[in-house]
Amino acid sequence: MAEGAPFRNQLLLTPEQLGSRLDEFFKAIGEFNDAYYFESHETLEDLWMVTPWPEREFFQGIIQLAAAFVHFVRGEYPGTIKLLDAAASKLAAAEGDTFGVETGSLLAGIARTRDEIAALGPERFRSFEEGRRPRIEIAARIRSGSAIDVAI
After folding, report:
1. Which of 11, 106, 135, 143 has the most C-beta neighbours closer than 10 Å?
2. Which H or E run includes 18?
3. 3-class SS of residue 116
4. How many distinct structural domains can be found in the chain?
């Protein structure tokens, strides 16, 4: 293994360990909402790799959403559509709000965005107003500092 390379076969986190690392998740959400898509993807990837199911799938959906907009910024239509679809599929498995994320409104935003980009097609999709992308909203009780239960 090359020096400094990430160790890919790490042990999965316990619920307590995951709960103690949620600041990484919230940082990634902030980065996405501020249009730092690549940074959001990178911030969440280290946590995703050691998170057990079903939370792992939820984190992967957020990562794929961020990656979709990396592709959008790079002008890669097929990757944008493919990753929006993959993100929606992963996030649809979440029940209610997960880690404070209001998944229903996020899924609606992803669907609207995907439909608008698809309607523009490969030649015009870059005219999609980036500010219309979905925002990842955190429930008010979480924003106010209430604890999040991690049930694995």
Report:
1. 106
2. helix 15-20
3. helix
4. 1
**The pairing of beta strand 101-102 with beta strand 97-98:** antiparallel
Are 87 and 110 in contact by the 8 Å Cβ rule? The answer is yes
Instruction: Give residue-wise pLDDT tens across range 3-26.
Output: 554 555 668 999 999 999 999 999
Give the separation between CA 81 and CA 95, rounded to whole angstroms. 24
What whole-number distance in Å separates Cα of residue 18 and Cα of residue 102? 19
Tokens of 130: 């980036």
Largest CA distance in the chain: 48
pLDDT at 6: 54
Nearest-5° Cα angle at 105, 21 to 141:
50
Neighbours of 151 (CB within 10 A): 6
Can you list the residues of the chain whose pLDDT is less than 50?
1, 5, 143-147, 151-152
Residue 19 in any domain: the answer is yes
Give me the CATH number covering residue 119: 1.10.3450.10
Structural domain contains residue 31: yes
